[in-house]
Structure formats: structure tokens, C-alpha cells
Amino acid sequence: MRRKTATARRAEVLEETLTQIRALGMAAVRVADVAEASGVSPALIIYHFGTKENLLSEALVHASAQDLSTLDSIVGAPGSPAFRLLAALDWYSPTGPARGWTIWIDAWSVAVRDRALAKVLADLQRRWIVAIAAVIDDGVAAGLFHTADSSAAAARLTSFLDGLAVRAVVHKTRTSRRDLRSWLIRQVSWELSVDPDELSGS
């Protein structure tokens, strides 16, 4: 039987860490529980990750990797800037398939008192904003969108969806995909001074 590579074993540990976060909450996760579920010793986890805080941070980076890759594919795909922007925001949204919102809201809460984790989350958020701002820039170049600061516009649009995610997860307030699409069109129209009809047909 072939032994697992260090990379494969590391990925398994990070996946198990995410499972523990979903089940227990980030603050309650213990290295010992992750180690037992992963079939390794706690000492081995500490050897590779250093601290529990590093383990949690790397688990979040691991969780975001696939979504960021998909986001890059969406924004780099053929299609109008309006189509790609709405597709990217739909992917990001709390009714879309991207990201486990429970994990991220939990992480935001812990990050209030954990500066290292807050830095990791800020970096991940920056990567989302950069990707979405690039699509906005394409729309500005095409004369479709109008904004003096695409990064600020991207930050406000993602913050709008972050707020909906908190409502959905914490307050159990569900928004249908149809309503969310309508709200997104209204928000993008206002943010980027674009005719809603230009977005509705995208």
C-alpha cells in the first residue's frame, strides 16, 4: 500500500480541521481532536503548523483556494463585463455555491480578538475584491460602467453580500435566488451608474 505524501496528508488535516470548525465552532476546535480524526499525533500537527492558530488560518486559506480558482475562471471567461460581474457576484453570494458561509462568519467573530486571523481574512477578502474590480475596470473601459474607484466599488458590492450572508446564517433569513438577482441588479446599477436593462439581459 502506497504511503500518502506529505502534501496529501497535510490536505487531509486541513479538511478535517474545517470539518471540526463546522461542527464545533472555531473557538472550540482542539488540535487533539483534529489529530485523532486525521489519524496522526498532535505532535505531528504542531510540528507542521506550529500552533493551533496557524492551523486554523491555513485551513481557511485551504477552504478558499478552490473558490478563488473558480472566481478567476468566471472573471476571465468570455462574455460582457456585465455578464461576468453578475456571475462573479452570484458565485460569491449566500445563495450561491461559493464558500461555506458558516465557517467565514465564525472566523470573522474570532478575528475580532485575533489579529493574525484578521490579517489572513483581510488578505483573502482583498483577493476577491481585486478579481471583481478587474471586471469592473473592463466595464469602465467599454463605456458600460462608471466609477472613479473600481476597488472601492467592488468592496461595497461584496460587503452588501456579506451582510446578506450574516442574515441568512445567523438570523435564518433566506433570500430567493430570484430576489437576490433583482437586488444585485439594483445595487450594481446604482454603484456603477449603469442602466438596469443593460444588466437584466446579461
TrEMBL record:
Residues 7-67 form the HTH tetR-type domain. Residues 30-49 bind DNA. GO terms for molecular function: DNA-binding transcription factor activity; transcription cis-regulatory region binding. InterPro entries: BetI_C (IPR039538), Homeodomain-like_sf (IPR009057), HTH-type_TetR-like_transc_reg (IPR050109), HTH_TetR (IPR001647), Tet_transcr_reg_TetR-rel_C_sf (IPR036271). Keywords: DNA-binding, Repressor, Transcription, Transcription regulation. PANTHER family: HTH-TYPE TRANSCRIPTIONAL REGULATOR RUTR, HTH-TYPE TRANSCRIPTIONAL REPRESSOR BDCR. This is AcrR family transcriptional regulator.
